[in-house]
Amino acid sequence: MPQEESIMTKIQEMENTLNESMYKLDVLKKRIQRKLLTTENREELEAKLEEYKEILVKTEEKLKKLRKQNTKSFMVAGCLIFAMWIVCFLLYGLYSIFFET
């Protein structure tokens, strides 16, 4: 049975993909700025540049969704911990009332 990846693992993978895409984008921009490119090579590099920009946008959107999901998970966990404290406090109060300690 394959183990599901955690949200944090997915976020880290997305950040790695994002950093890699940004690096490739910078390299392509520098190549395009060179003056010794043929028209064909320049068009090819510009097409790749657009492709990496699209990947960058999609990855940023996925990363935002994962971070939002991570925040929701954290809020649920926080609420559960708070609820457990309340239950413990109430049980202690009931114990104190019935056994008059």
TrEMBL record:
UniProt cross-references to InterPro entries, sorted A to Z: CC167
The keyword Repressor belongs to this UniProt entry's keyword annotation: no
UniProt keyword annotations, A-Z: Coiled coil, Membrane, Transmembrane, Transmembrane helix
Localization: Membrane
GO cellular component: membrane
Keyword Membrane annotated: yes
Chain segments annotated as coiled-coil in the UniProt record: 11-69
Membrane topology, as annotated: Single-pass membrane protein
Descriptive protein name: Coiled-coil domain-containing protein 167
Gene name for this UniProt entry: LOC108628073
